[in-house]
UniProtKB/TrEMBL annotation:
<protein>
    <submittedName>
        <fullName>TMAO reductase system periplasmic protein TorT</fullName>
    </submittedName>
</protein>
<dbReference type="GO" id="GO:0030313">
    <property type="term" value="C:cell envelope"/>
</dbReference>
<comment type="similarity">
    <text>Belongs to the bacterial solute-binding protein 2 family.</text>
</comment>
<dbReference type="InterPro" id="IPR001761">
    <property type="entry name" value="Peripla_BP/Lac1_sug-bd_dom"/>
</dbReference>
<feature type="domain" description="Periplasmic binding protein/LacI sugar binding">
    <location>
        <begin position="49"/>
        <end position="299"/>
    </location>
</feature>
<dbReference type="Pfam" id="PF00532">
    <property type="entry name" value="Peripla_BP_1"/>
</dbReference>
<dbReference type="InterPro" id="IPR014301">
    <property type="entry name" value="TMAO_TorT"/>
</dbReference>
<keyword id="KW-0732">Signal</keyword>
<dbReference type="InterPro" id="IPR028082">
    <property type="entry name" value="Peripla_BP_I"/>
</dbReference>
């Protein structure tokens, strides 16, 4: 296996460096090929670059953990970071306006956690001119995108589907599916790959509920679906849906009668795994994705060798292995709150 090692230059802007193995997809912007495992080392900034990051929302601890990784890497690299939150996947117009604000701020680069897979791409030249735009976490079309950090969300669906397919060898499963907002982020890819894996197994998806990754929205969806389908024995959903399910099942005295699996990780899902209330969850190592996105952008701006399409390995977490797996590259510390600005000390001292 070929290893790419990037040598750390010790200059005043950098404090620490991330070193570890990640996935590289080649050709870029295609998850159809098997990724190559490469050794990666973060790069110090040679000036306090101005980076602008756009998130679809900060409603759950998934994007909070991405935010933590970006903020930590920005501070360690000595660069400036401005963060915008669109407030939800329906807020397409707001994210367009936030792109304009990034350009007005004279950002050197923009990291786009897009609310849409492809609707924003053709507007980028108009909104931000020649400022380079990099894809952040969410699936995004290659048009007008210089590079990206992420994972194949189809793999998240495959992993959960495979887990349930194996479980269905011993028990027939009637499933409520709550993947999140329809055709946003990676939900359509998750649904498609999940259904592919459970086909021809003793698994029936009795209902599917789409909705924003908002706790109240997911709780309302779940309550309606449970009333409509009282004979289900498993719920598969987004982390927010599973967070809503834990107290709802307890209230209905359905603990032990309906099992839970999550397509991705959050702090509450992590606790649910530790307490054996959740059977399985993916982690696409959100903190690491945040760190990688900052470093990838620094490399691009400094015209140094960089890998255009990278991301972490997706971890499969269960109550049996959760105590053995380090989650510091997946979840932010429990007391971390969203941070929207990072300033370089060299700028503050001017």
């Amino acid at each position: 296996m070929r290893l790419f090692t990037f040598i750390l230059l010790l200059i005043s802007f950098s404090v620490t460096a991330f070193v570890g193995e990640i996935n590289l997809w080649s050709p870029g912007f295609s998850y159809t090929t098997k990724p190559e495992r490469v050794l990666y080392q973060s790069k110090p900034a040679n000036r306090p670059w101005r980076l602008c990051a756009l998130y679809p929302h900060l409603k759950d601890s998934y994007w909070l953990s991405v935010n933590y990784g970006m903020v930590e890497q920005a501070r360690e690299s000595g660069i400036q970071l401005q963060v915008f939150d669109a407030g939800g996947y329906d807020n397409y117009a707001l994210q367009l306006e936030q792109l304009r604000q990034c350009a007005d701020w004279e950002a050197d680069a923009i990291l786009l956690g897009a609310v849409s897979h492809d609707k924003i791409n053709d507007r980028l030249p108009e909104l931000v001119g020649d400022i380079p735009v990099l894809g952040l976490v969410n699936e995004v079309s290659q048009q007008n995108i210089a590079a990206r950090v992420g994972v194949p969300w189809s793999e998240m669906g495959h992993n959960v589907g495979q887990f349930l397919a194996k479980r269905s060898e011993h028990q027939s499963l009637k499933v409520l599916l709550l993947p999140g907002p329809k055709n946003r982020g990676g939900t359509s890819l998750i649904e498609k790959s999940f259904n592919q894996e459970i086909a021809n197994h003793n698994i029936q998806v009795v209902d599917i509920g789409w909705g924003d990754n908002d706790l109240e929205v997911q709780r309302n969806l779940l309550q309606h679906m449970l009333e409509k389908h009282p004979d289900v024995n498993l719920i598969a959903g987004s982390a927010v849906a599973i967070e809503a399910a834990i107290p709802e099942l307890q209230l209905r005295k359905l603990n032990g009668k309906i099992d839970l699996v999550s397509f991705y990780l959050s702090h509450e899902v992590y606790r649910g795994l530790k307490r054996q209330r959740i059977l399985m969850a993916n982690s696409d190592q959100m903190v690491l994705q945040g760190r990688l996105s900052i470093d990838q952008t620094i490399r691009l701006l400094q015209k140094e060798p960089f890998l255009a399409d990278i991301g972490p390995t997706i971890l499969t977490l269960t109550p049996e292995n959760i105590s053995k797996i380090e989650v510091n590259l997946s979840l932010s510390p429990g007391d971390f709150r969203p941070e929207y600005e990072v300033y370089s000390t060299s700028v503050l001292n001017k």
